[in-house]
Design brief:
NCS2; 19 helices; about 65% helix; two-stranded antiparallel ribbon; Putative permease; about 0% strand; transport; Azg-like; mainly alpha
């Protein structure tokens, strides 16, 4: 195992990798509940979607771990599932079979783009300081996600402010604050497995508070995927709407995944001397296969989860972390009632602390050169403000091109970066 995953070479060990993998799983286990809820709005059977969600996460994350040998976990992505259900089905009026067909085509296109190194070229086109900024932006973004899900940060119904402080004197908000403090203390005292232990302790505290409910049973058989398996609709694949849906899925998934891979790899100090993510082609291939198989099983687009940063922060550096996460998703198929105790109030503590870890790379950004600093800053702030990793990258890359150009430093802009920037602009104009 040491030889296969190169544990010693990466300064890690089996125990650390397994703990990291479990930590990653616990921070993203919510997708097993949320994804079926969202896709059921599109008329899909929630039980079948649960099984499809877990299986697609198992398969794609195993490919990431065993083939790419990177500590990144995959599952049906948030935002992509909402687009699937609320836009394609409920707003545009198409069937979920039409949406699944678009996801299948997206996966096939991604496989082809990966084989011909197009996606890899896009990753390499992102300027180094933007890559560092992506890590910082993701840190702020996942901290916001954690606080919002736990109710610490809310969106006021009266519209007085964009966000406001939620209820933190009682309920999930209070438990989240307690969890943040406990996890922070464990991290400050350099306790091994601090993030994992923080979630466990927080969950235990939530039981007498009446926030965490212990399940009546632990083991259950996974529901059948018969109603969602290979449910495709081919007669609309040449329509204009299919082109629009397909391009939107491609754009959202591509740059969310690229942003996550670059950001988390940056935090883990995994970038090579040229600022490239190791085994990036294999990682993107795992993502493409996951999306294709996910469509066949009956779920929305599979992507690399930003919560992978939690496992990396716990010390995960190799594919063994991903394999451990995949095993947990497989167990979740049969232990779904038990994993229901991992509520947003429990995971918020980890996401906030990991957010702190992720912003560390801001020290490496050249803030004295404004042609570098301004695009990096826009990348950072637009991720949480636009609620999108991909939109943050768009603002960073496009502003980088424009500022460099009009500041007389156009020779520092690569042709690949310009091409990517043009695609970004066209996306906002036409989609």
């Amino acid at each position: 195992m040491d030889k296969f995953f190169k544990l010693t070479e990466n300064g890690t060990n089996v125990k650390r990798e397994i703990v990291a993998g479990i930590t990653t799983f616990m921070t993203m286990a919510y997708i097993l509940i949320v994804n079926p809820t969202i896709l059921s709005a599109a008329g899909m059977d929630s039980g079948a979607v649960f099984t499809a969600t877990a299986l697609s996460a198992v398969i794609s994350t195993l490919i990431m771990g065993l083939y790419a040998k990177l500590p990144f976990a995959q599952a049906p992505g948030m935002g992509l599932n909402a687009f699937f259900a609320y836009t394609v089905v409920l707003s545009m009026g198409y069937s979920y079979q039409f949406a699944l067909t678009a996801v299948l085509l997206e996966g096939i296109i991604f496989i082809l783009l990966t084989i011909f190194n197009v996606r890899e070229a896009i990753v390499d086109s992102i300027p180094v300081n933007i890559k560092k900024a992506i890590s910082v932006g993701i840190g702020l973004f996942i901290a916001l996600l954690g606080l919002e899900a736990a109710g610490v940060v809310v969106h006021p119904a009266d519209g007085g402010t964009i966000v406001a402080l939620g209820e933190i004197i009682k309920g999930p908000g209070l438990l989240a604050i307690i969890g943040i403090v406990i996890t922070g203390i464990l991290v400050a005292r350099n306790v091994k497995g601090a993030l994992f232990l923080g979630m466990i302790i927080t969950a235990i505290i939530g039981i007498p508070m009446g926030i965490i409910d212990l399940p009546e049973k632990i083991v259950s058989m996974p529901p059948s995927i018969k109603s969602t398996f290979m449910q495709f609709e081919w007669h609309n694949i040449f329509s204009i709407d299919m082109v629009i849906v397909l391009f939107t899925l491609l754009f959202m998934d591509m740059f969310d995944t690229i942003g996550t891979l670059v950001g988390v790899a940056t935090k883990a100090n995994m970038l090579d001397k040229d600022g490239k993510v190791p085994n990036i082609k294999k990682a993107l291939f795992a993502d493409a296969i996951g999306t294709t198989l996910g469509a066949c099983l009956g779920t929305s687009t599979v992507s690399t989860f930003v919560e992978s940063a939690a496992g990396v922060a716990e010390g995960g550096r190799t594919g063994l972390t991903s394999v451990s996460t995949a095993v947990m998703f497989f167990l979740a198929l049969f232990l779904s009632p038990l994993f229901g105790i991992i509520t947003p109030a429990v995971t918020a503590s980890v996401l906030v602390i990991v957010g702190l870890f992720m912003i560390e790379t801001i020290k490496e950004i050249d803030l004295t050169d404004y042609t570098e600093a301004i695009p990096a800053f826009l990348t950072i702030i637009m991720m949480p403000f636009s609620y999108s990793i991909s939109d943050g990258i768009v603002f960073g890359v496009v502003s980088y091109i424009l500022i460099k150009l009009f500041a007389g430093k156009w020779k520092e802009i690569s042709l690949a970066t310009v091409i990517v920037g043009v695609v970004f602009v066209l996306k906002f104009i036409f989609i």
